[in-house]
């Protein structure tokens, strides 16, 4: 039986974080496995808000999470 590294997420594990990111038409909800901001943190400026979801909410669809945790107010430039 193959061993998995403990740092690798299990394929059956749902995403842990609910994230609001800056989209072309305003805030957009996403679900992330980890708070990984990419090389040189290029994603950091796109993140408006994030929340680590409780285990019982990780399976919920984005539409439900977006209603439960509304987007932050974003002032347009």
Tell me briefly what this model is.
By secondary structure, this protein is mainly β. It contains one helix and three strands, in the order βββα.
Structure characterization notes:
The protein has one helix at residues 62-68, and strands at residues 17-23, 26-32, 47-52. It has 77 residues and is mainly beta. The protein has a domain at 17-68. Strands 2-1-3 form a three-stranded antiparallel β-sheet, with helices on one face. The longest helix has 7 residues, at 62-68. The mean pLDDT is 83.
Question: What's the SSE blueprint?
Answer:
Blueprint lengths: L16 E7 L2 E7 L14 E6 L9 H7 L9
Labels describing this entry:
three-stranded antiparallel β-sheet, 1 helix, flat, single chain, 77 residues, mainly beta, 9% helix
Percent range for helical residues? under 10%
Beta percentage is 25-35%
The gross shape turns out to be flat
Number of strands: 3
Report on the biggest sheet.
3 strands, antiparallel
For the CA atoms, what is the radius of gyration?
Answer: 14 Å
> Spans with pLDDT under 50 lasting ≥5 residues?
none
Specify the number of helices. 1
């Amino acid at each position: 039986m193959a061993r998995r590294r403990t740092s690798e997420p299990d394929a059956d594990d749902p995403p842990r974080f609910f994230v609001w990111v800056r989209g072309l038409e305003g805030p957009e909800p996403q679900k992330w496995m980890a708070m990984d901001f990419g090389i040189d943190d290029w994603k950091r400026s796109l993140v408006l808000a994030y929340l680590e979801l409780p285990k019982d909410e990780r399976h919920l669809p984005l539409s439900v999470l977006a209603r439960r945790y509304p987007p932050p107010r974003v002032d347009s430039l």
